[in-house]
Design a protein that fits this description.
Length: 332
Amino acid sequence: MKKFLMIQILPSLIFIGLGLLLLIGLFATGNQQTLNSEVSSVGSICSPSGEYNKDQIDEVLERAGAFKGQRAAFEHASKKHNVDPVLMIAISIHETGWGTSRALLEHNNPSGQMRGNQIIHFDTLEDGLEMTGQTLNNLWNERGLNTVEKLGSAYAPVGAGNDPTNLNIHWAPTIHKFIDELGGLSGGCEGESVEGDLVTGSDGFAIPVKNYTFTSPYGPRWGSFHRGIDLAAPEGEPIYAAKDGIVSRSEYHFSWGNYVTITHEGGATTLYAHNQRNVATVGQKVKQGELISYMGSTGHSTGPHLHLELCLDNSLAQDRLIDPYPVFFGNK
């Protein structure tokens, strides 16, 4: 009798199991189509001529739910706000799960725009794209977050309140892959060098790491104030003195972890935080490019990176800090 009952209910159990697996799969993927290749952190294809492949974009949008046939709408909004249409499309596809999200279908919201904890409702898709264009113009052009990585640090910051499991770490690599699938960006190709020798910016300050990814800018972040910029690289990446000076601190701080400060001629001070290990010692005279520490994730840190600050004096007071990016990167 038991054997007969098992034979009777086995098909039902299998069917229920397959259904559960299917539901898990849908929730895990966010109903997104799979890209052509595995997500990585490499940069996007880019056309310095300002051209883009309209046929290729149309082919991708054909598969993008409510965005099907909407290239002209993207072009209109992007032209009005001086942003790359390919970038806008890539972000919109990602944020809406290939044009299928409830935010898009019920609220005409193509890019995850929020007001507090509420999704913003737009009367038309054109209105939603208008707001998307305004936002991207503010971040990319006005605030200078003009790479996908820098944009992601503000648009989808890792560890934000709505990112408790740090899934936003995949935002920039995924946007790069969508951009490539769309045929590449139509501009903004300059970008800064992220490999090789130390690069010197204005006032003679050199970027203190040779291999890095820019992950977070200076200024307001996650409801607080970010005192510097973040450059991420694997654990143990060498960190070098940005300019000649005297080591004024080499110690541990509960937030910065292992950190070093160097006071330069004229009093300006650079700070290098979250180090795996400090090499430089207090009072040591260092030359630009001299090894001072190794990259790590000590203190309050979500992963290996250099937190770099620039202060007008040796006080490290917040009202004496300046944005390091223009000094180290200039117009790059």
